[in-house]
Amino acid sequence: MNFAKLFLSENKESFEKISEYIFHHPETRFEEYASAEFLASECEKAGFQVERNVGNIKTAFVASYGSGAPVIGFLGEFDALSGLGQVPNKTSYEPTELNVGHGCGHNLLGTGAFAAACAAKKYLEENNIPGTVKFFGCPGEEGGSGKTFMVREGVFEGVDAALTWHPSPGNSIMSLSSLANYQVYFRFKGLSSHAANSPHLGRSALDAVELMNVGVNYLREHVVPGKPECIMLSQTQEASRQMLSRQTLKSFTSSGRQRFSRWKKSTNGFAKSRRGQL
């Protein structure tokens, strides 16, 4: 513990500069080209061997040092969020020009995990201990499920343990499981018509959306506690006086495969009830 504290204290300014760079170059999921390349380059400067474009993801990479067991992984994220750009050191809302920012602190998350990997590497070096340190550059955490694709492609195979952290008001150790979820886009298709002159000729996709929202709310009381279901986003690009013929919802559910199947069947029914399509 004292070794890690001393190492981080001695290299504090270096890691602060990395965090500041990522903060000032915010990029959304799977588009973290500058952040990923900068962090990968810093890994190389620190003596890691870097493999880029892992898992068929352009902004994913793995930085490795050492050999043999155990193989310890550190997970670093660096994606930002749209709509959360903020000028630093301001206590009131003052968005940046692009309004993309690290509202969830992933500039700190990626840098902190990298710092931990560097400390572990240094400890192996100074004590001549066998083992492998791997720093995983993980893109697309914010709504992109980047690590899921990396797991599917075998990127984490051979890792004995993986550690990460998240910015928080408190400093503590968490040993909790988290919920998997389905992230689904439901696209409703109806028939467009003028909402004032000929509404009877139209088939409103928005009606089906509203029915789905009500239906999901009624399903909630039959879902196991701690298994949330939510509708996150509605999209349309039609004129204000036009009956909405197309509507898209981005939905999340953590209630399991069986419940998701029921949800999907119900949603199809909502669409058919308005003589539309899903």
CATH architecture assignment of the largest domain? 3-Layer(aba) Sandwich
Question: How many structural units, i.e. domains?
Answer: 2
Counting DSSP E segments of at least 2 residues, the number of strands comes to 10
CATH topology of the largest domain: Aminopeptidase
Order of the strands making up the biggest sheet: 1-2-6-3-7
Assign the CATH class of the largest domain.
Answer: Alpha Beta
Low-confidence regions: 237-243
The SS-based structural class is alpha+beta
- Helical element count? 8
Q: Could you tell me the mean pLDDT?
A: 85
Give a quick account of the main beta sheet: strands, pairing sense, barrel closure: 5 strands, mixed
Distance between the termini: 56 Å
How would you describe the overall organization of this protein?
- With 278 residues, this protein is an alpha+beta fold.
- The chain folds into two domains: 2-163, Aminopeptidase (3-Layer(aba) Sandwich); 182-273, Alpha-Beta Plaits (2-Layer Sandwich).
- Helices cover 36% and strands 20% of the residues.
- The chain contains eight helices and ten strands.
- It has helices at residues 2-10, 12-23, 33-45, 106-127, 141-144, 146-152, 205-219, 257-273, and strands at residues 49-52, 61-67, 71-77, 81-82, 100-101, 131-138, 161-163, 182-189, 229-235, 246-253.
- A five-stranded mixed β-sheet has the order 1-2-6-3-7, with helices on both faces.
- Strand 1 and strand 2 form a beta hairpin.
- The longest helix has 22 residues, at 106-127.
- The chain is elongated and about 80 Å long.
- The chain starts with a helix and ends in a 5-residue tail after the last helix.
- Mean pLDDT is 85; it is low at 237-243.
